[in-house]
Amino acid sequence: MERVTLEQLLMATGYAERHGESIFLVDPHWTTTQRAQFDQICATKIKATDSHMGWLCIPTGGSSGTVRFARHDEVTLSAAVQGFCEHFNETQINVVDVLPPWHVSGLLARVRSAMTGGRYLAWDWKRLEGGESPALTENAPWMISLVPTQLQRLLAQPAAVNWLRRFKLIILGGGPIWTSLAEAAQEANLPIVLSYGMTETAAMITAQQPGEFAAGDRSSGHPLPHALVEIQKDSSVQLARAETMGIVCISGPSVMRGYYAATTMTAKFATADLGRIDAEGRLHIRGRRDEIVISGGEKINPREVEVVLRATGRFLDLAVVAMPHAGWGEELVACYLAEAPLVQTEIDELVATLPLSGHQRPKRFHSFSAPDWPRNAQGKLNRAALRMAILAR
Fold this sequence. Notes:
Strand content: 25-35%
Radius of gyration: 21 Å
CATH topology of the largest domain: Rossmann fold
CATH superfamily of the largest domain: ANL, N-terminal domain
Shape: globular
Helix content: 25-40%
Strand order of the largest sheet: 6-5-7-8-9-10-11
């Protein structure tokens, strides 16, 4: 894709702003503080060579409360699309897009369709969630990208499930899939493809092949043809052996040029995620290394605790976060979305039955109503907002 074509596509979204030589995608849901951060970032000048190589600035990190921008361009995005097409052996990408255009997944849906001459259909998520789905032409293979919470809500609607069965691929990303959701999707016979990617890699970097999810695979799949995924031991440069947990590192032509107004990235991008590569070359994500909690000297992965709690079926949505504790350093707090909060006796009985060791069990539970549950437009949970809400109680 030529730069001028990509610029036209960006400006047509209505969520792009040109500042100097760079174009920034802008999230309309930013808080006043985040907008101020953006204004300060735009006021920071970068070298002309950096603006030429990495002129497209895509927001990342908003769910943590701090805005920063990954710098991409027509080269990195074209590489991502080419790898996508090769991986799925597709020459024309027809997309129903329910993700916001200021998010990398929503942007890449547009770019894939434009680069391959496919059909592109933007559809409002709230309309789809409310039971209104667009008609799909019978003679075209369609794809849709969803995050796990979106899939969960659609699975509760029989008409939506029937509509989803008409897709060739339902690409699931943006967060881990929990066991009960995976089982429900498999039972519904949906063409799910689990994937892994991020803003810094121009979206998808690994993905399953069609049929692998239905066969019971719950990995994030194999690397796409344009990507090299390696596991690094801790913070050293030494690579880990197969099946060994470590830092997920990614290199390839779709990796960002760097963060705006920051030191240019090296060719290999060390993510914040922990994972392993199995003997068949499939990536398994365990969680974020910056979320590992140390409570009373014990290391705890809160995502593993979330999986256990979700499996109880007692919560509409749930997150486990770390809060400061005078005696243990940190403690686990379970935040959950519910129509009515659990009473303390229910919580005590539930915790007693969990297959968790003592240090893994949340010490407190906080309920939230739907209006206060901080998921953004692409379904990502704002854990920083949850922590602030807990401190305010």
